[in-house]
Amino acid sequence: MTETASGPARGSKARGSKTAGASPKGGLRAERIHTTPGVHPYDEVVWERRDVVMTNWRDGSVNFEQRGVEFPDFWSVNAANIVTSKYFRGAVGSPQRESSLRQLIDRVVKTYRAAGESNGYFASPADAEIFEHELAHALLHQVFSFNSPVWFNVGTQQPQQVSACFILSVDDSMESILDWYKEEGMIFKGGSGAGLNLSRIRSSKELLSSGGNASGPVSFMRGADASAGTIKSGGATRRAAKMVVLDVDHPDIEDFIQTKVKEEEKIRALRDAGFDMDLGGSDITSVQYQNANNSVRVNDTFMKAVENGTEFGLTARMTGDVIEKVDAKELFRKMAEAAWACADPGIQYDDTINHWHTCPESGRITASNPCSEYMHLDNSSCNLASLNLMKFLRDDEEGNQSFDAERFAKVVELVITAMDISICFADFPTEKIGETTRAFRQLGIGYANLGALLMATGHAYDSEGGRALAGAITSLMTGTAYKRSAELAGVVGPYEGYARNAEPHRRVMRQHSDANGTARRMDDLDTPVWAAATEAWQDVIRLGGKNGFRNAQASVLAPTGTIGLMMDCDTTGVEPDLALVKFKKLVGGGSMQIVNNTVPRALKRLGYQNEQVEAIVAHIAEHGNVLDAPGLRPEHYEVFDCAMGERSISAMGHVRMMAAVQPWISGAISKTVNMPENATVDEVEEIYFEAWKLGVKALAIYRDNCKVGQPLSAKKKEEARTEVSEAAPAAVEKKVVEYRPVRKRLPKGRPGITTSFTVGGAEGYMTANSYPDDGLGEVFLKMSKQGSTLAGMMDAFSIAVSVGLQYGVPLETYISKFTNMRFEPAGLTDDPDVRMAQSIVDYIFRRLALDFLPFETRSALGIHSAEERQRHLETGSYETGDEDVDVEGLAQSAPVQSEPPKAVAPAAPATSAAPKQAHNSTELVEIQLGLNADAPLCFSCGTKMRRAGSCYLCEGCGSTSGCS
């Protein structure tokens, strides 16, 4: 898509693009980017059928299963698994269930085309068809992806919500506060996240009209936090995603800053007293304020007071009078201390945010979505889409590289057109949000794989060259997006709020253009991209002055969690690479670790020969890093710096990258600045202060191991109990009473169940007999021929288990001990309730759990029947009639970690530790580097998650800890 009916886009011929001429009817003229006339994109790829079986590695239970799904042969196992389990619609096993990527893409793309045609976007049906084919090709080839709600909802019978990011508002009235609880809950139920600013609520230091003291916003946060903790987000077992913002001049700001710090102290005290405060523990729900990200909104007046060491006034909400003066530097220090201690609060720079606001006449920007990338008017939403930057990196025959700026700009035009069309048919969770979004049409185009792109081009993430290339690409993306927005305004009109905000909108466009003009050019890669961006911004100013703009906002940098996996991206959003060695799933099962494909490309870009590349890659495969790699020059080490590992990127390196791209982002950037465990409060202050100086709109820091309640191993728990028992003096010698169990034998006649089974091709029979008053009493197992070693061991094992049961050993104890035991034979079974077993013993005790344990007990062990798993996929609940309230919702709170372990003298182990097994890239890095990644476990599949912006992402199943 390159032009409107009013004429070709300026400079399009100079870039060599084909122009299709103007249409007398009006509407957009389409241009082919990737497709061939007369050939559908689906006919240009090789399709294959696959089986998708996803298991929980902790207990071996099957989380999801769909066989015979159709994907292109170049899609990875992980991408196909996640799309099948997350995005295919229809009940599993029913004829209505989608089973091919073609069906998924058609469902979305055809809806977009139909809406575009009915709303007058296209000059002709032929242009609409080109639009459909180009959109389908780009999605099929993982060039870009819409955000998750589009894949969930578009083209289905349910409300067609396309937005993942929401901002709400609350006023100083009980009615408004209760509306906030309700609106937030509805957004959480739909699987999205919301943010809002509580600063309109009067402080606890002000009076009510009745004469009593007000509760204050921190008090009302408690109710909202409890609500968020009990609502399953999108019907899934993950926490709701929310952001709470308070202005720095609010009289309750110190209480707000301290909310999470105090709760962390509570976790420590309760844990030391013996309560179960692990993530997901039974007592963690007593902790408050854990379901939101907190941010303080600071202004330039406050930051200058910090800089100058002067006082700062806190103002009454109702009168605006200063009711208290505080030392600005001391308050800033308290913010840094709290963030150092528990990662909250983050910081948002109010004047910087509103300096880039296109619609100030319609209201200030006061808040953000949970991940801090969407910032616009209250009661609004933003739908997102992200481009895969690695798809635009070209290598010629001589080994030279270039970024395909021309094709990149055309894809941006295509995607922005589709995103704007979606607002025409989209549904919204509240009427107020719908009205604001339709009036301002906020969009959020962004990208993923920046870290991989920089490494592949031989740029260190923390380098002037890397920042220049990132800035150039970002400027070109947003400039092209606004250019297309101006072209759309010439066809279907500007957004409703444009007339009132025309001058400030054009002012912000000039600010973007001026920043582009003064940006530093570094090398042969970024200079051509800067040139294309300059041309785009010239078109923005020219066409915007003539037509206005279709969209009040064009771009953000989102976490790109699940959709990043869908596009097979190595890195998410604006993040650097996690590590140099990846964990890759293989077709047919199994996995392997591989050195990133970006590493050889980077080495070739840096001038290394094939033999040298092979030697360096072999070294990385063995050691997980480039230190002392044969033939690698030390000055090139920085190119391979990652988020984790021996050479991790500094905290200020992350901040400098954010500052390098912020001038060309309409919204902001979802990113958490990771800091090492030994970082100081002074360093946190420095980051918060320098980010303000550099023009960043918002950020948050996370110091490794600053959280308490991470899942502890059984060994650590036992050590903790030992320490407590040793610390307690034995004041009184107690008499020891010995109790002996009594065996309860089964009667001569007893009910029983005989089950035949096959595990990995090995056949067997199990007979399980019960007491008449219920309860398993004995088990008999028949395997192989009588007299064989296996048969004898199975007989002995059966007797041991049976005698234990009759002496009162609970069945669930056996199940917890013997499930997940791994040995051959293992693999597929003929039991629909237990499709995969890691051994015969694993299968036997899963079957016994299904036959003899109550639902609540085995569900806690992660064991469900096929019917229950299907019900969960359809309704979000394993249990019939289960409501959307999750009593363990607080277990899905912001990722929490334990204190650093106390230093102890090393002791020789009695036995060698069993080798760890990796289930994703994060765990692989832990094993290779001997470190502990500060991240939560996925509640869907049990693997350790990894950072994706300010959220966490599971590589195994695509689940996220925040908004989609």
From TrEMBL:
Catalytic class of the enzyme: oxidoreductase
Top-level taxon of origin: Bacteria
Cofactor needs: adenosylcob(III)alamin
InterPro entries for the chain: RdRp_reductase_class-2 (IPR050862), RNR_2_N (IPR013678), RNR_lg_C (IPR000788), RNR_NrdJ/NrdZ (IPR013344), TSCPD_dom (IPR024434)
Domain Ribonucleotide reductase class II vitamin B12-dependent N-terminal: residue ranges: 52-142
GO MF annotations, alphabetized: cobalamin binding; cobalt ion binding; nucleotide binding; ribonucleoside-diphosphate reductase activity, thioredoxin disulfide as acceptor
Domain TSCPD: 750-850
Keywords (A to Z) from UniProt: Cobalamin, Cobalt, Disulfide bond, DNA synthesis, Nucleotide-binding, Oxidoreductase
EC number: 1.17.4.1
SUPFAM superfamilies found in the cross-reference section: PFL-like glycyl radical enzymes (SSF51998)
Family: Belongs to the ribonucleoside diphosphate reductase class-2 family.
Name of this chain's protein: Vitamin B12-dependent ribonucleotide reductase
Source organism: Wenjunlia tyrosinilytica
Gene name tied to this protein: nrdJ
